[in-house]
Each structure stands twice: as structure tokens, then as C-alpha cells.
Amino acid sequence: MVKAIAGDYGKDNGVDPDELLWFANEDGSVRICANCSDFFAWASADAEPITPDNIEVFEQAVRDVVAADIWTGYSWLFAVRMRRQMPMTYRKPRDADDHRLWELFAQAAPTE
Hints:
13% strand; three-stranded antiparallel β-sheet
């Protein structure tokens, strides 16, 4: 799984690797998460785990962000899809990239 994330996605492929968090476990394994701090709640240190069970959802989020010609936001899109929850309203779109990203969020999460 690490190769799938680190090898296929990176700045050379138009994706910001800083959206990922890597944690080394005591047993030598690595836990990888999508950073979504301050996205769903204020002052939060938050991350959505990327696991073998949801790697396809993560990879689709990356493909969708790249296809929309957006440099950043795949970690947020992945988290929205996993949680089926929209981000805080203060993150409302400010430019064309944000608008395209929010369209992807709206497709992934129910609105109330």
C-alpha cells in the first residue's frame, strides 16, 4: 500500500504529498492517513486513515482532483467521501479551484 501511495502520487504527478500523514508504529509498520485537520472542526488535529479496505476510495479521490485540474484537496475529498460529511462552512469556495473541489464534495456528501 505504501508504494501505491508514495510511488504513484507526488508533485511530479500534480498531487501535493503534504496532504498525507505518515506514522511509524512500534512494530515497524507504517500507518498512513489523509490530513483533514481544521477541515471538519475548528482547532482539530484530524486525519482519515488510509487502509487496504479504502485505498480504492483514496485513489479515486486523487484521480478526481487531478482530472479537475486542482493542485490540492484530494485528502479532503477522501475524508468527505469516507465520512459522508461536508466541511465547515468557513471553508466555502473562494476561487475557481475551490468551486471545482466543492462540486466534488457536494457529490460525495449529503446536504441538509
